Amino acid sequence: MSLLGGIRPPIAALSALLLALAALTAFQLGHVGKGTVPPAVLTSQEHFAEDGAIALRASLDESVTDIGRTASLFTAGEPVSPDSVLDKLGNVYQKWRGTAVIEIKSGRLEAQRGENLPLTALDLTTLNAPNGLAPRMVRLENGETRLLTLALLSWQGHPQQLLVASSSLKVPGVSLGQGRAIAVLDAAGQVLDSSGVGSSGRERKQLDAFAKTTAQKAKQHPLQSKEPGSGGFPGVSGSLLGDAASGHRSVAGYAKLAGPAPGEGTDATALGLTVVSFVSVAEQRSAVGDSFFWLAAAGALLVLGALAVALLVVTVQRPLLQLFLESRRIGRGDLHRPVTLPKYGEAARIGAALDRLRRQSLGEPGSPTDSPRPGRRGRIGSRALLAVCAVLLLVWSAPLLLTLNRAGTSVKVPQTIVDDQRERTDTLADRVRRALNEGHADLTSVASVLTAKATPAELTGVLERTRSEHARYESLYVLKSDGSIMARAGGTPHHTGTKAASREPVTVIDSGHEPVITEYAEAPALGGAVVVGELRMDFINALLRRPGMGEVRVVDAKHRVIGSNSGYRAFTKLPDAELDALVTSANQKSGKGPGPHSSVLRHGGTSIAAAAPMTGGGVAQPLGWTVVTVQPAKGLEIAAYTTQNRTVLAGLLGLTGAAACLGWLHIIVVRPLRALAERAEALADGDRRTVLYPTHHDEVGAVTRSLEVIRQQLQEQRKRDAGGGTGRTPGRTTPAGRN
Questions:
Q1: Dist CA 33 CA 304 (whole Å)
Q2: d(Cα 222, Cα 232) in Å, to the nearest integer?
Q3: pLDDT tens by residue, 10-62
Q4: Cβ atoms within 10 A of the Cβ of 175, count?
Q5: Cβ contact 332:344 at 8 Å
Q6: Are 431 and 58 in contact (CB under 8 A)?
């Protein structure tokens, strides 16, 4: 017999599967909502920290790029004084706390702006070493930490100089909301900078505890810190539970600075910084998890499963095994005892045919009318019995799949998650605004160093270098006051004809298939010409891709969609009137003025929506853009949805297991058994020519082989009868000498 064939393995597998599923249902699936903090709240804190890590990494890398590009632009032109370098740098960028120019050979300070820099911490003799110009962190006397960014200023015939810019390690543009704190840690877990941490000793103590734990977890490999297939943030991130007091518990998220793609490092990621954010949430136990329901479901599965297995054993397995034994007996020549006929299905038909063959082997009449036939119950086929078993198991699986434990639209969403959605949306809006402002500042920096003596080829070279250093631009070009283009780099400009440049620093036009965001910066030395940069729409859309925020859209002042993290049609209206109203309320100027708003939407399913206008100043604010996010609540680890998902999972497991085992039984046993019944009846009706071949090496195959032996015996018997011609019983002879 084959180990995987026969009647026993499918029934045994079905029994084991139902027992395992009953145990899983009773002891594992019902453990929902046992914790005091929903898992969705922990995940939300992790995403919040990831937003902070992305913002800090982008800010630090942008600062390094800006310093290096500015130094290269100055170096490419005529020599200028250190004071001119710092003045132009300060006019274009206002993000550094202090700047300075140092003559490298003598170590003399040539010029300085802003706060005093810790220049004694710089070793000027190691600048030529590998990574000698890499950013470095230094600690001031007051305990604060600064990041120093370096670049070289070199002109032929002039002493080489070092441009130094100092910036804090505060996470930029992160909206903390109420009661939240955020901190930046070094690789050893020491707090370098923090915001929102109160003066109470408890909060400081909690931050120190989180910092110590985070320092250990941040040492993990990114692939080992997450569940397989989780995707999202490319670096190490997670969540932590803190101490509880007065019915509240501190919940933290942490994220180590990581590159824009897995395995891709930057100057900022080399610093080994980690962002930690934490907030105090109210503890509450969910009443959704009903242990009695799961115990009852497991009991019902055991009862229905026992009925199904018993039905298969009584009506399919036992008759087939009995038929197997009877066929072997008849094949060995034991013909005097009648065949014990099964009562059901194809086994009854085969048994009746086998008994007819027995009688034919004894020389009795083989007419179908004289042979025993299966009774009325014998008409019930094995397929019908399998269908009854499937119905029994479907009675348990179908309600779990379709009706029981449905969450509905009245699910209570934790307020912390709603607040996090609002603050994250506000942070994302600020990041889009900063990206547009940074792009305009880059253009202004380029325009400030262009001279009237520059040839179109030299202008093109400057534009090419700028575009290679900043991936945000689709095309860069210099536009004269009469609308003609002096030089360009990248794609074909959308500016056509003799139309002069816009007076607005940032504009959005419809190109026919996507929005074109165009920024303008005046070049004073070129007589009214402007440097124009057209931003890639993919650059804006990439900023909107955040795990755990759902669908993100950017809409203009008319509530038309400009960008999205998923497929969209440009300049179309928002798909929901509630979202439109949310954008309107977020841009209201009464009271405290425009600000982020969030709401739980119940129309068409529960979802968390938030809208945040771009505020904070800069050339991007007049655009009137608003970031809108919609996160379906069913994707969150809330107790009601977890219970619903586990209920569906249990039903799906039951349905899949039943289909697999019953399908296995149908293919291996029932279908060959039906074919064998037809062949056995044909053999009993007189078909001696058709050879019977077994399909599988199992009980059905054994019965087939026995019938083939009987067919051969009957064929030999017919040959003997035809050869003797006496009509007497084989083996009897007439004694010699008698008449």
A1: 29
A2: 11
A3: 899 999 999 999 999 888 777 765 667 888 888 899 999 999 999 899 889 88
A4: 19
A5: no
A6: yes
Query: Looking at residue 290, what is its pLDDT?
Result: 62
pLDDT (tens digit per residue) in 703-726: 888 888 888 888 888 888 777 654
Nearest in space to 378 (alpha carbons), one of 319, 338, 322, 328: 319
Sign of torsion over alpha carbons 90, 96, 102, 104: negative
β-sheet bridge partners, residue 255:
237, 275
199-247 confidence digits (pLDDT tens): 667 788 888 899 999 999 988 887 777 766 566 788 899 999 888 877 8
- Between 602 and 629, the more confident residue is 629
DSSP structure class, residue 380:
S
Please provide the average confidence, as pLDDT, over all residues in the chain. 84
Alpha carbon 381 to chain centroid distance? 47
Give the pLDDT confidence score for residue 379 in this predicted structure: 61
Q: Please choose, from the candidates 344, 350, 352, the residue with its C-alpha nearest in 3D space to the C-alpha of residue 315.
A: 344
Residue type, 232: G
Query: Do residues 465 and 589 make contact, with C-beta atoms less than 8 angstroms apart?
Result: no
Burial 359-382 (b: 16+ CB within 10 A, else e): bbbeeeebeeeebeebeeebebbb
Mean pLDDT value of segment 176-204: 84
Structure-token match 């859309």, residue found: 541
Q: Where are the beta strands (DSSP E) in 82-178?
A: 98-103, 109-114, 136-139, 145-153, 161-168
For the chain, the residue count is 739
- Say what the pLDDT of residue 454 is: 83
CA 687 to chain centre: 63
CB 5 within 8 A of CB 695: no
Ramachandran quadrant class, 661 (left: phi over 0; alpha: psi -120 to 50; beta: rest): alpha
